[in-house]
Amino acid sequence: MDLFQDPKSASSNQVNEPNAQVNFDEPLATRMRPQSLEEFAGQEHLVGEGKMLRRMIESGVIGSLIFFGPPSSGKTTLAHVISKEIKASFAVINAVLDGIKELRSVVEKAEKLRKLNGRKTILFVDEIHRWNKAQQDALLPHLESGIITLVGATTENPFYSLVNPLLSRCQLFELHPLTVKDVRSMLERAITDEDRGIGKKQIHIEEQAIHHFAEYAGGDVRNALNALEVAVLSSKPNDDGEIHITLEIAKESIQRRNVRYDRTGEEHYHYISAFIKSVRGSDPDGALYWMTAMLEGGEDPNFIFRRLFILASEDVGLAEPNAITVVQSCHEAFMKCGMPEGMYFLSHACLYLSICPKSNSAGAIFKATSEIQNRGVKDVPVYLKDRTANRLSAKYMDVENASEEYKYPHANPRNWVDQGYLPKALSGMNFYEPGHEGREGLLIRRLNEIKNPSKE
Question: Once rounded to an integer, what is the mean pLDDT over residues 140-163?
Fold first, then answer.
């Protein structure tokens, strides 16, 4: 559910009429849902003075739109504001709960409204990425006919989650996370608004308290307004009838900082990308920060351990061969102890990989894979073939045993002998490009020494 979304509006094809009266039984966050562009907070890059979307709204000429961005960035609210501004009927479909049947119902109502008074219908499809190809395709004829104007909302990258025919009929707008300033402006409006807010009450709220609400909400206006309402309703007025909201009351009303993170949305990929790049870049502080952000947002610790396993070979690799053993041990300890003590094992593995020397030479496997996939597998050199099989061939074909040409490394100084092991056609090819850090650097220096004894 997006910011300010009324749970009632999430039901199948519910139509919200403009100028609906305020219901004071509803939560403060619902009552304070912006009704106009002037009340809308944030997204200045879209609805600021002179910006494209604002010009479209003011002109009344709105085509189908796709809003994509993190949860609580205002996608539902902006769609609602647009319907208010252009005086259109506003229908809501939740893609998780509703399908083509509900879409048909909305279209039927939209056709009747258009015939009756020429009124437009904006169809808001929340989490539109949850619809499959057939469901998304079902929208196309109705967009072409102009019966409905689509506003779709998604937390995922629309280029990956939506079908091309739908994308080609919509304009895309990216919404950014709301800032502390944006949240604070909504709080201040609620405190002073006598019609929909709590302005009729005598409220004195300390500066530190309102800042705490705005900051701990983590960009979620609904969370901030709900906390403000709890603080006001749970505080008794003094002898003068004034409700005094202190920092202590604010802390009690919103005790846990909201972490803006969606395990299934695009931010999931941004956070894990930042984590991986921090470990790879040998920045333990950055790695800890992004890992903790994911955990606070509800990420599965096993997912993080999976990434640590991959990092141990992909980016640390032979520079510290014990890295994967350390991660394995930390994971086993985590599985035995659980949380919250498991945080130590996550931290242990994260910090260790971050400060380890780095090598990506294990990626050589993909170069060898590419060679084989593109050119096929060449014949095994005869002297590398199985000795027993070669002996039988030599006996029955009356030829010399080719395996006799094999040079046994352990019969030579330092257990190495100059001998080719690739197919003859690939002689001299190198898949492995060694790193020179940590343990790998020591091993490569030894290998070079035994291959070139004259240079010792």
Answer: 89
